[in-house]
Design brief:
Blueprint lengths: L1 E4 L6 H9 L13 E2 L2 E2 L5 H4 E4 L11 H12 L4 H14 L6 H9 L9 H9 L20 H13 L5 E5 L7 H18 L2 E5 L5 H4 L4 E6 L2 E7 L3 H7 L10 H7 L22 H10 L1 H11 L21 H18 L1 H21 L10 H20 L3 H18 L5 H27 L9 H29 L2 H17 L7 H11 L1
Parallel strand pairs: 1-6, 1-7, 4-5, 5-6
Antiparallel strand pairs: 2-3, 7-8
Length: about 525
Amino acid sequence: MTLLLGPPSSGKTTLLLALAGKLDRDLEFSGRVTYNGHEMDDFVPQRTAAYIGQHDVHIPEMTVRETIAFSARCQGVGPRFEMLAELSKREKAANITPDPDIDVFMKATSVAGKETSVLTDYILKILGLEICADTMVGNELIRGVSGGQKKRVTTGEMLAGPAKLLLMDEISTGLDSSTTYQIVKSLRQFVHILNGTAFISLLQPAPETYDLFDDIILLSDGQIVYQGPREHVLEFFESMGFKCPTRKGVADFLQEVTSRKDQRQYWTQADKDYSFVTVEQFVEAFQSFHVGKGLQNDLATPFIKNERDTQLLTTKNYGVRKMELLKVCFSKEMLLMKRNSFLYIFKLVQLLVMAVIGSTVFLRTEMHKGTPTDGIIQTGAAFFSVFMIMFNGLAEISMVVFKLPVFFKQRDSLFYPAWAYAIPTCLLKIPISFLEVGLWVVMTYYPMGMDPSIIRFLKQLLLLLLLNQMSSALFRLIAAMGRDMTVTSTLSAFFLLVLFANCGYILSRGIIKNLLFTFR
């Protein structure tokens, strides 16, 4: 358990992103990061280390259990199966009989492809989420779990994978000190029981939270001032002439002692005049401190790669087979469609009402076919159908925009590739399109006085079905490009304007040609 401390803009987030392999490719940086002596090109850092950001991004319609179970199914069991096989061999060679309960648990957590995993229940228990396991995560519009529970869900989502290193950035944002303490205490249990590593950035941890950590890393102005055991950090600053007051929190002292504004109050060497000690001076002094010397000796010793099990470093991009990922995404999309069934029912009712209005406006008994004006009215009836089917796809915008942050988080964490997310969304909308278009055509085709031939009827049904699929895909594309409701609303209005203006009804083909000739 390592605590990352530092004032704002000291580089904490950048350091965590660098360790997770998620730095922007456009940034220039020096140095290198190795895991067990291996360069980042030798394995997949996104699956070996789990980066957990400040903000809790989840699908609000899913429950806590479903969120963690989906994460576990996507990320797979990792190297747990191979490690269990190796452990069994060594136990047999040493004639060791494992504890029955532990043996059953390890075997259950090493089985991939299960919809309900023992590991999911274990994570819920160790993070204290059992009480709200079947409660929706929620958001501003849907009542769900509390802020502290949502933060634990964010952590549990990553614990369900094979990552042994947790890089957690400002997880106390928006939480009180008591909730932060409970979360860190749960993480400490997880890390110590399963022999993992947690590198956690906190801004102002309470003293009891600070005492839960094993090591401290203090950052200031992008430089590491101290890195080592928690017990020696005050000793280092006392050797520099600064002492933490008795009733002062150590974490607050560490973040203020490098500040030009707050440093003077901690100066204790009365026989020497105080002068500001810069970050560079602290860094130089740490190199000669016994903790710093030990750290330099450790870094100077070449790491022998064969000493560690290479199974700990994940080399595959995804935890399960591609078809399994597709199956998991299908099940999640079907679940969300059930939870959002009101939206689809409302769209059907809306189409039904508009079909009744349209069939009465263009009533068969009033639809004559004798003059060119009658032909224009007939074309207007067809255009009205096209207009309604096109506008019915607008609901896709809000649904996609609200789910995009979750998609980007899970895609960047290599839960699944983008195609595994997009294909279920497209295919599962086809039955909805059949239902909507079928209802519209049945309600409007014959009442509007269209050609009674069944072939013409089926042609219009097919045409409007393809149009519905096109409009849904178009608005999904606009939402993916805009990523914001204001931008997507503007773009969708523009595209609709272009499509309707060039469909041949509002502006005839001849007028469009003349306009183009005039502009030239």
